[in-house]
Amino acid sequence: MEMSELRIALVSGNYNYVRDGANQALNRLVEYLLRQGAAVRIYSPTVDEPAFEPTGDLVSLPSFAIPGRDEYRFPIALSPGVRRDLATFAPNVVHVASPDIVSHRAVSWARRRQVPVLASVHTRFETYFRYYNMAWFEPAVEAILRRFYRRCDALVAPSESMAQVLRDQRMNYDVGIWSRGVDREMFNPGRRDADWRRGLGFADDDVVIGFLGRLVMEKGLDVFSDTIDDLNRRGVPHKVLVIGEGPARDWFEARLPGAVFAGFQGGADLGRAVACMDVLFNPSITETFGNVTLEAMACGLPVVAAAATGSESLVSDGFSGRLIRPGAIHQFAEALRAYVEQPDLRARHGAAGEARAMEFSWDRINQAVADTYLRLIRQRAATRR
Question: Which CATH class is domain 3-181+361-384?
Fold first, then answer.
């Protein structure tokens, strides 16, 4: 089978209505597949004013706003109209990108028709409950996820560390890698802009510790702010730059009264904002890859990150950054202090990270997903015979 014969139905809980690393990766994948001559149809909730225009043909799924997080929507059904659209499109592979009710229905639809299913894993949903005083619920969520992922023919994860977690959790026995790329035109050290930095109130010799991501508690905002408190108690001179928006912004601003909040940045503005940092601090443990980590590395920044899935596959501890035990405030602060006080160390580790980031080409990475589609179709055909 050739790439041009692929007909992919992509089912996702969020394709373009809120911008995040996962749906940007999905849109890049669809753009690549369309460029190779494949047919793709996307099924996802929609809103009147999405964060960005979708790549490809998007069919709206019935959905409702999630209580307490109304920027996100929960798809509720494969409606009769959507099922008719699926049948007319006649995919030869189904790709599910979120473990929700509609994806369950899509898997059932595919299994009845002997169409292979690939699931991509973008977030460690089971860890979210730790941030909402519901850690006791994590084993139950893991069991629910296991039931869903075992009904799929194969999984792809963004990093080897995340793939190993999925294997250890017995989610599936066919787990491959769909890594993430970085746009080197957008993210590189040359994007640093001294005038923009000065406009935010930073002096040229200030060492700026950056946070990049949606401002939600599961990104480790508590660990970030507690670590900055530790640095302040030690008298370590530094500044903080926060890039991103989200429902926890007011809480985060109250915890970081001296920080500069630059809000959402997109496109070339985002590359400039990241390059204007001096070190990225990413304490989150929920990412399966860590797009922000890779983007910072591409800009020549050392990264201090939690030793968790995603960052573990990108950062080489003591060579391009530091990997610290999740939640270890004192150790995080000590790692940041070293970068603040040692510009040579900062430059050396930043250069090593930039070299590592050059290995991530979007086309090569997305071809790996296309190859997985083709393999699953071949395997299903052999099973039928």
Answer: alpha beta
